[in-house]
């Protein structure tokens, strides 16, 4: 079902062009096709609801979630990374999906250099030749991709991000690209405006 998220960058190309004119892109998101630059305090969420399948892809600077972006070497840093990973492995708690929708997690993937994912994966995709290793080390990101199967998708009227803001208080806003039954929209969620409508 990755095809749903692969179509998202093309559907939102006009937004990407407008945003590119406004922001300096550090090219962190080249392999995921997401929008926006690496900015502390700002996360990105792609959400697609298609029939009974809900896909959510959260991308965030590691600083927003764990409080640092370097590889964990101390016991305290390793414990923080492990705690954040455990929180990200509970997407139903993070995204507060309506119980009436009957959504269950079908698949989930977490990816970050902080989780021990090989930095070589980034080098394979780097085409700028400007030393992507140092750049990625300075600006580590955490990517979480979730796919849910929802028994009653019509009950998915809202997507509540309040728990993400509570769990990760360094996340000040989330730029959301949402595709659902009523079309596509780009919105900015904050702790005070954390509920999105499909």
Automatic annotation (TrEMBL):
Keywords: Signal
Keyword Signal attached: yes
A Pfam family annotated for this UniProt entry: ZrgA
Keyword match Signal: yes
Signal peptide: 1-20
Coiled coil: none
Ranges of Basic and acidic residues composition bias in the record: 117-137
Stretch list, region Disordered: 113-137
Stated name of the protein: DUF2796 domain-containing protein
Organism: Pseudomonas brenneri
């Amino acid at each position: 079902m990755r095809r749903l998220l692969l179509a998202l960058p093309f559907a939102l190309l006009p937004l990407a062009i407008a945003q590119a004119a406004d922001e300096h892109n550090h090219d962190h998101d080249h392999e995921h096709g997401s929008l926006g630059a690496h900015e502390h305090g700002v996360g990105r969420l792609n959400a697609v609801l298609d029939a009974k399948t809900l896909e959510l892809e959260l991308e965030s600077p590691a600083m927003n979630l764990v409080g640092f972006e370097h590889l964990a070497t101390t016991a305290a840093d390793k414990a923080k990374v492990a705690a954040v990973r455990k929180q990200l492995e509970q997407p139903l708690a993070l995204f507060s999906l309506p119980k009436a929708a009957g959504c269950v997690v079908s698949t989930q993937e977490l990816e970050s250099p902080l989780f021990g994912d090989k930095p070589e994966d980034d080098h394979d995709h780097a085409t700028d030749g400007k030393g992507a290793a140092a750049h990625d080390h300075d600006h580590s990101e955490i990517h979480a991709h979730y796919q849910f199967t929802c028994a009653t998708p019509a009950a998915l009227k809202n997507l509540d991000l309040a728990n993400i803001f509570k769990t990760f208080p360094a996340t000040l806003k989330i730029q959301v690209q949402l595709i659902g039954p009523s079309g596509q929209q780009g919105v900015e969620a904050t702790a005070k405006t954390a509920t999105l409508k499909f």
